[in-house]
Fold each of these.
Amino acid sequence: MKENYWEIIEKAVESVPAIKRTGLKAVELRERYAKLLMPLEGNINHVGMMYAGSLFALGEMTGGAIYCVSLDYTKFYPIVKEVHIKFIRPALTDVTTTVTMTPEEAKRLTRETLENGKADFDLKVELKDANDEVVTIVQGTYQLRPFN
Amino acid sequence: MKENYWEIIEKAVESVPAIKRTGLKAVELRERYAKLLMPLEGNINHVGMMYAGSLFALGEMTGGAIYCVSLDYTKFYPIVKEVHIKFIRPALTDVTTTVTMTPEEAKRLTRETLENGKADFDLKVELKDANDEVVTIVQGTYQLRPFN
């Protein structure tokens, strides 16, 4: 597959209007690595910090983003099965997070999905504010599935 | 406190633009009981079902909604500490959920917040589709705090 990562991530965001509305965007992309950003603007809650749901959107999108830059998006698609999110401290700036996948994990997912019609993967990411403080921890379980 | 629940819930939704954008609304409100609805329209994901983040928004809002109809919103405000969300089956219709609080729990939270400056409460809610099937289970831990 050819690595037009920016285009594929943009399409992924565009395909879910509720994500698009948050202003979430990729800020760094390379093979098996993504850095995403959620702007504070438009995502403030009733007490002036970033809304829990916008932090969730950022954390959950790591599953889609790492899929886009690690797996064959012409053959597979991801869904999310379960997420645990822990809010550590108030997020008062834009928030970023990074996600990676090893080549071995990408190979395992590809092989298992072709063999079994599905394969689960777990991610744990830290969401950080502009001072590099962890504001939120997100653990997700996702499942890769083949297009019919 | 006087029970203008519809007005206070509307203000709560308006106070978080990212929630407002989803179209989430209350459909039943009475003392210590709320039923909330997330419309499918505007909340569809890349595979045609309701987006995980919109289901999160609905589940997480139960903490704010039950606070509005159970506790003194002129004295206290809630924050969310932690959420676990499990996606059981695809949501292909509008999704609703109900949340309740016992009088004893409301009294405990009021007393502890006045005494200790904070009090935690847990909620577990089922999100259901139009066929009354459970699509998602959300467990949240919230904290009540006093206004200064």
Amino acid sequence: MLKVSIIGSGNVAHHLIKAFAASEEIELVQIFARQKNSLIDVADNCLIITDLSLLIEADLYIIAVSDSAIGETSQKLPFKDRLVVHTSGAMELAAISERNRSGSFYPLQTFSKSRNVNMKTVPICIESQNSDDLNIIKMAAASISDRVYKMDSAQRRSLHVAAVFACNFTNHMYDIADEICAGNGIAFEIMHPLIIETASKILTLSPAEAQTGPAKRNDTVTIDRHIDFLQDTEKKKIYTLISNSISKHAKKL
Amino acid sequence: MLKVSIIGSGNVAHHLIKAFAASEEIELVQIFARQKNSLIDVADNCLIITDLSLLIEADLYIIAVSDSAIGETSQKLPFKDRLVVHTSGAMELAAISERNRSGSFYPLQTFSKSRNVNMKTVPICIESQNSDDLNIIKMAAASISDRVYKMDSAQRRSLHVAAVFACNFTNHMYDIADEICAGNGIAFEIMHPLIIETASKILTLSPAEAQTGPAKRNDTVTIDRHIDFLQDTEKKKIYTLISNSISKHAKKL
């Protein structure tokens, strides 16, 4: 069995721990968290350590901490020449101290602690410095997901930017819709079928083919009315900028 | 059986025709299209007329044409004092010529001809000038959907603006992600699980709770790197504006 230890207790760590704990191909050796109780209900209590110097031997150490903490965390590891990966979309392999062999283990998904995710469908993007290490990382990834992609740091960074648009910015569009509904006495639940269908269309149509709405039709009367309707300056700006961008794309097709 | 005729052959008309044709509570009397072949495979050929003056008696006439054509189409109807509704989110009842009784029949969904939609789950927002007409409109809506909402024109307009954010702008975020993937040799399919999960989270979390990503964490290092990465001025502007908006929202929580 492949021995894996996880360093971190945030959203990504939380979901990786659950997935590895459920995998029969993986021995989850240790989990480092600054505070034991941050992993209550997630991990077997006796696996949790709160001192990095207690880390014992494993085939793979996965650092699942915020981007800005990867460097410092990797420098504090009490060993050298072992395989250490991070889970960041934005960071290069060099973020990990060169005292160890570095790699990437980036799960492309939006994780919230309160929501279960089927890890089998989550793409995991992997990278390493040599092919032996890649095999180890691939085994670990394939033990929890059916979608493992080899990808270099430049591609991973571009994917991370794309994910910010497709996930974080999309969710903010939902948030603005929620605010508009709330301000007009409408329950946000009425938007659920529209939101699900908008996402589901993408499984069979390209986004360009799936586009609908006033900006796509270049319906300037409706666009101007909507901008008038929005009181808030920031919402007006977002509406105008994205509508212009949609209209330009539609003309190119 | 309630007698319904539909005027129009666009995306919305297309899906309403299919839904009413399948409903046992509705007699689909006639369908007006400027060109018969625009409704091939959708409607029984003998129901289609291409001349508005041939419209015969029905309980409800649904004008499903573009917003800018509603007024002119309603003026050309060869009768008076009958119940005529439009399917627009943006237009008031007064868009329909006052020679007939007016109402609204707004299905809140994104429709593309090439994609089937389960109309039972589509919210239909209805409005009328009097309660008798509302009952007729409600019967028609309830015959094809389980989610019928009475709503005045002001609420419908606000819902339409919210829908532009939650659907049209969201789809444009997918489109930008698609462009970024294509420009970096990545198949867009890798984004599918992320897009579906981002939408699905909304069924159990509020958008504010579901928000993740660098702007939510106020991770300015990653944000600046992403803006550097984006070559295109318009994408840089969109990235900056939406990230600022997310950060402000996150601070308010």
